[in-house]
What we know:
- By secondary structure, the protein is α+β, with helices and mostly antiparallel strands.
- It has 2 domains: 2-46, Integrase, N-terminal zinc-binding domain (Arc Repressor Mutant, subunit A), CATH 1.10.10.200; 56-221, Alpha-Beta Plaits (2-Layer Sandwich).
- Helix content is 42%, strand content 25%.
- The strands form 3 sheets. It has a 4-stranded antiparallel sheet with strand order 3-1-2-9. It has a 4-stranded antiparallel sheet with strand order 5-6-4-7.
- The mean pLDDT is 86.
Amino acid sequence: MGREISVAARAGGGDPDGNFRLRLAIERARAINMPLDTIKRAIEKATGGGEGEQFEEITYEGYGPGGVAILIETATDNKNRTAADIRSVLTKAGGQLAAPGSVSWQFEQRGVIILAAGGDAEELELLAIDAGADDVDSSGEQVEVYTRPTDLEAVRRALEAAGLKIESAELSMTPKNTIELEESKARQALRLLDILEDHDDVQRVTANFEIPEALMAEVGG
């Protein structure tokens, strides 16, 4: 989260009121109890108020087990090191690093708002649509609200004003279509995503595969 705050502040300035991405990053950081002093230092370092590393955003594209398309969003102070690490992880998992643009077309950026569980799902859907959401998925344990990137903040505020509790709100890359993997390939793909997400430079990993119900129940449990 420190890196996300630094990148957001460097890109759009250190004032969260005028930098939507920074405001989202701060909210996510506070949700995991990051101290305010730590947040402030990250912003100051990124905007020239303190010494520290400067991170560059790079998104890598690749393929994993079963031909799964993967987007790997990073924030790095050494892109050569990060590229070599990502390539190595993909190769060891039976995948490969792909050329820019060869995978990203399979994804689109959307605003994603997660509402706290509870309440009438149909009523929540209607409230979200009235607030300007593009789509709502209430099939899982939580209600996921999808918006156009530019509408995320307005929809979030409208839902809060309606008294709904928001677990998270962020811009995210979502797959346009998904592929089904049989259980062994799905396990390999999940393991690959875990390894990538554990890398210090990786901020977010998105893939386009569906997990078999039996495996989902096992992982969820």
